[in-house]
């Protein structure tokens, strides 16, 4: 007998979250069963007090038995939740056969501070007359206090203007980095919640300490050496909430009674690095009993509290450690550590050197053609970390308030008499703590390395916001980069909270006229906004998150922003149905650009009008999902007018496009602006353009993400495969052959002769061109969703392509419902290459269904789990269509499918 079970309970995508800011949290769970084809038919969910007692008055919300198959993002609808309230919850389910599960294990969630009135603490900063607000040094703040009773529960709620780190009784509070994160600080500032119950000493003296640095708030940002973009004073806001065993409570907050000094961090900037003088450490500064008599006082800072929001995204953390793979001695005589991987984070050092010894680490992504340390592409960013030893034994250090993008680390100042031991150095990989959800592998090792590079490009650039690059004097949330990569991103990692938080900032920074800045948070000049394919992130990103996670709330939250962006486009130019005015990046970094230009040859008004149509079409779908019928009808009419205007303006009556680039063909095909004979002709023309380039691309940021998809969907999958497998310039695998471990900004960031593209803009960790990953998962491995029938992979579409010049390919995705797998392999049983045996393995999680499409297969030639295809358990139907494709309707379970079919000879594997 198969037991129906429940696992992986999450609240707002997280397991037992602390400090939630949403007053209507959403619950998700996954079903387990050993039986095939299991669907949820009903659920019963209960929320109770923190004791986990679901009886009587302890019950806060009881849904009763709800006839529903919904197991993802079920919204709380009970009595209003209160600030700091901790709740337990559990769920049970029934399947379509009426089998009832046991209650799940009990899970928990806890609310943060939900209202401005919850804050009694003051914003505080050191007395300006005693400590210069513009000082480069970190500020150390402390407060001693006595706890007179037994503590049952203790929470700290904290935020800052600038970066902060907390200590309590000498121990670091939490393991988060770069708090409070980067948001649109004028409108939104995140608060972090910490459980410090185990750090508090009952009936004893205690002390809390905070270190403050410039961070994104007032440090150096962008390439014009701008500072103090949000304010010119660092400050702390903190409340320690104590709940005693007798039921009484106490709040200890930041106020002018705190004391301040400067610390051993003498300089800390995101771009430039950190200088730390260990001789200046004040031992025990966050301990009770520390003598702070010579520390200065604090003053209140008048700053808003109504902008405070609880932490929305997963925090940045140290995710893994890397050890140097070798120590190099360059031709110029430098000692360089090779980490073997272009990474983002910092270096940890263990030292035992005399007092006053200064060790400087400089960070770079690549070596030059002679093997020397190269930092030209960093522009003004110094990426330099200096540690001055205090002596007297082993010391450890890693930067506190700065991160670097690097593979190579030059070590300066190491004593000649002391051999440099690489074991004393560790690379600390840091990024937003997103769970890895997607995996892809195939028989082509260079494609596997490409997948590795795509993942590491995302790791390095998804550091609180989706940055374009992590090393030079930029590291900004470019909207265009984010929107072209969002679908790939949502496969590799769980990014729903990440993008939700960033899109809230996009909405906050959006102009009154609906224009969208080029970067979010906005730190460029006021005119840096509203380029086609960049501003369209306002629509494309929320829609994609909805598709991949089934999250309607993100559409609700961003709806006005999405609408305002479409209306902004409509207001441009002299024709409301064409977008032919304003600044546009065009097909950025396309290879068909004029000499000395970054902008490709595709007409920018063509690109802009295509994205105008695309964003309008997505907004129509959004309105339909949310039941906004009037908007859906009105904007559907707008879309039809834009599509019509596009054809009149850019397509001749004979079906020729009035532009002759690959990207010009790609966009109308991808966005469905052409159909019938015009579509066939345009696809054929695109194929010819690719062949004329000797099966190479010429596309930039705008065309590249869609190129292989368009070829595959229009009958040119073989050409898409040739493009993906090219190894010479320009191609995805060119950089892999050059030794890349992340995605490059330029196709020829390092030229075949070893020379570099211009220092002006040459990142070796720039994820945009990694959007090819989406095609690998969906087209090659065949793991996709059915948008119309079930977003969030409720309804799965499996379309593996065995004609991909590989002997096997496989993809797996840990969806909201559980793991989905699509794998295929070809075995040349007869040795003649003419009719290899095709084998597939599919995994479908409970509470979902899938349709598998197997070209060239038939019911007669196909077995599923050793049974005829139309008789196997879990196969709901098996049908052959007129195109010679077998379509299997599958319930949940694992399916091993074998097909004896004519297939291309194995090649390219």
Automatic annotation (TrEMBL):
Domain Alpha-L-rhamnosidase C-terminal: start-end pairs: 789-858
Q: Which UniProt keywords apply?
A: Hydrolase
Instruction: Kindly give the Gene3D superfamilies that the UniProt entry links to this protein.
Output: 1.50.10.10, Galactose-binding domain-like, Immunoglobulins, Maltose phosphorylase, domain 3
The segment(s) forming the Alpha-L-rhamnosidase six-hairpin glycosidase domain are: 435-780
Reactions the enzyme catalyzes: Hydrolysis of terminal non-reducing alpha-L-rhamnose residues in alpha-L-rhamnosides
Ranges where the Bacterial alpha-L-rhamnosidase N-terminal domain occurs: 149-319
What transmembrane ranges does the database entry give? Answer: none
The superkingdom listed in its UniProt entry is Bacteria
Question: Pfam families per the record?
Answer: Bac_rhamnosid, Bac_rhamnosid6H, Bac_rhamnosid_C, Bac_rhamnosid_N, Ig_Rha78A_N
> What EC number is given for this enzyme?
3.2.1.40
PANTHER family (UniProt xref)? ALPHA-RHAMNOSIDASE (EUROFUNG), ALPHA-RHAMNOSIDASE (EUROFUNG)-RELATED
Name of this protein: alpha-L-rhamnosidase
Q: Which organism is it from?
A: Paenibacillus cineris
């Amino acid at each position: 007998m198969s037991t129906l079970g429940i696992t992986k309970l999450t609240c707002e995508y997280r397991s037992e979250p602390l400090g939630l800011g949403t007053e209507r949290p959403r619950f998700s769970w996954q079903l387990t069963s050993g039986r095939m084809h299991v669907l949820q038919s009903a659920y019963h969910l209960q929320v109770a007090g923190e004791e986990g007692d679901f009886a009587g008055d302890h019950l806060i919300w009881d849904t009763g038995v709800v006839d529903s198959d919904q197991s993802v993002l079920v919204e709380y609808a009970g009595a209003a939740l209160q600030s700091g309230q901790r709740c337990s919850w559990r769920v049970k389910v029934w399947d379509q056969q009426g089998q009832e599960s046991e209650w799940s294990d009990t899970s928990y969630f806890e609310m943060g501070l939900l209202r401005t009135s919850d804050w009694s603490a003051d914003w505080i900063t050191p007395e300006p007359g005693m400590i210069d607000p513009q000082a480069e040094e970190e500020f150390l703040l402390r407060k001693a206090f006595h706890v007179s009773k037994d503590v049952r529960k203790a929470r700290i709620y904290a935020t800052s203007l600038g970066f902060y780190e907390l200590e309590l009784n000498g121990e670091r509070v939490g393991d988060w980095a770069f708090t409070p994160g980067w948001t649109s600080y004028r409108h939104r500032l995140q608060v972090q919640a910490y459980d410090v119950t185990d750090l508090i000493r009952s009936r004893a003296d205690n002390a809390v300490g905070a270190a403050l640095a410039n961070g994104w708030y007032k440090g150096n940002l962008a390439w014009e050496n701008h500072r103090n973009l949000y304010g010119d004073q660092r400050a702390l806001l903190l409340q320690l909430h104590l709940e005693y065993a007798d039921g009484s409570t106490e709040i200890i907050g930041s106020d002018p009674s705190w004391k301040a000094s400067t610390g051993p961090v003498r300089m800390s900037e995101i771009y430039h690095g950190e200088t730390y003088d260990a001789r200046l450490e004040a031992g025990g500064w966050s301990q009770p009993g520390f003598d702070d008599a010579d520390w200065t006082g604090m003053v209140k800072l008048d700053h808003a509290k109504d902008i405070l929001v609880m932490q929305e995204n997963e925090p940045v953390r140290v995710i893994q450690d890397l050890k140097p793979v070798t120590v190099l001695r360059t031709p110029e005589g430098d000692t360089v550590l090779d980490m073997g991987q272009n990474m983002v984070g910092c270096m940890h050092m263990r030292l035992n050197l005399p007092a006053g010894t200064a060790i400087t680490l400089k960070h770079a992504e690549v070596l030059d053609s002679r093997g020397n340390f190269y930092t030209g592409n960093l522009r003004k960013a110094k990426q330099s970390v200096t540690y001055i030893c205090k002596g007297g034994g082993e010391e450890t250090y890693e930067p506190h308030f700065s991160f670097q993008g690097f593979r190579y680390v030059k070590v300066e100042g190491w004593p000649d008499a002391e051999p440099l031991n690489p074991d004393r150095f560790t690379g600390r990989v840091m990024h937003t703590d997103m769970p890895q959800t997607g995996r892809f592998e195939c028989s082509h090792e260079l494609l596997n390395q490409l997948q590795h590079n795509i993942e590491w490009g995302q790791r390095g650039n998804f550091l609180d916001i989706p940055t374009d690059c992590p090393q030079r004097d930029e590291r900004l949330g470019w909207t265009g980069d984010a929107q072209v990569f969002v679908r790939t991103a949502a496969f590799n990692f769980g990014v729903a909270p990440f993008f939700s938080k960033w899109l809230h900032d996009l909405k906050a920074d959006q102009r009154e006229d609906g224009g969208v800045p080029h970067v979010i948070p906005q730190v460029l000049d006021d005119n840096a906004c509203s380029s086609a394919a960049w501003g369209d992130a306002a629509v494309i990103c929320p829609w994609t998150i909805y598709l991949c996670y089934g999250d309607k709330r993100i559409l609700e939250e961003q709806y006005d922003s999405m609408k305002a962006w479409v209306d902004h486009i409509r207001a441009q130019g002299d024709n409301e149905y064409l977008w032919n005015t304003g600044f546009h990046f065009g097909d950025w970094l396309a290879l068909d650009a004029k000499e000395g230009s970054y902008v490709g040859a595709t007409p920018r008004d063509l690109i802009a009008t295509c994205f105008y149509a695309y964003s309008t079409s997505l907004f129509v779908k959004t309105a339909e999902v949310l039941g906004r019928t009037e908007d859906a009808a009105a904007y559907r009419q707008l879309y039809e007018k834009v599509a019509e205007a596009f054809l009149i303006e850019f397509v001749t009556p004979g079906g020729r496009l009035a532009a002759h680039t690959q990207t010009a063909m790609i966009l109308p095909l991808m966005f469905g602006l052409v159909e019938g004979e015009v579509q066939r002709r345009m696809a054929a023309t695109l194929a010819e353009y690719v062949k004329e380039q000797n099966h190479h691309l010429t596309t930039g940021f705008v065309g590249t993400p869609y190129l292989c998809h368009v070829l595959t969907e229009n009958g040119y999958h073989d050409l898409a495969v040739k493009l993906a497998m090219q190894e010479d310039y320009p191609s995805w695998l060119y950089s892999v052959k050059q030794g890349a471990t992340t995605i490059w900004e330029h196709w020829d960031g390092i030229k075949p002769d070893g020379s570099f593209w211009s220092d002006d803009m040459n990142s070796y960790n720039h994820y945009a061109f990694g959007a090819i990953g989406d095609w690998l998962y969906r087209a090659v491995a065949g793991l996709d969703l059915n948008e119309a029938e079930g977003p969030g992979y409720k309804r799965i579409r499996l379309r593996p392509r065995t004609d991909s010049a590989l002997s096997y390919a496989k993809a797996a995705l840990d969806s909201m419902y559980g793991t989905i797998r699509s794998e295929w392999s070809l075995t040349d049983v007869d040795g003649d290459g003419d009719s290899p045996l095709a084998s597939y393995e599919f995994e479908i999680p409970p509470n979902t269904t899938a349709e598998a499409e197997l070209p060239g297969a038939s019911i007669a030639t196909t077995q599923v789990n050793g049974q005829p295809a139309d008789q196997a358990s879990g196969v709901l139907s098996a049908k052959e269509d007129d195109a010679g494709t077998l379509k299997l309707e599958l319930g949940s379970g694992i399916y091993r499918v074998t097909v004896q079919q004519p297939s291309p000879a194995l090649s390219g594997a």
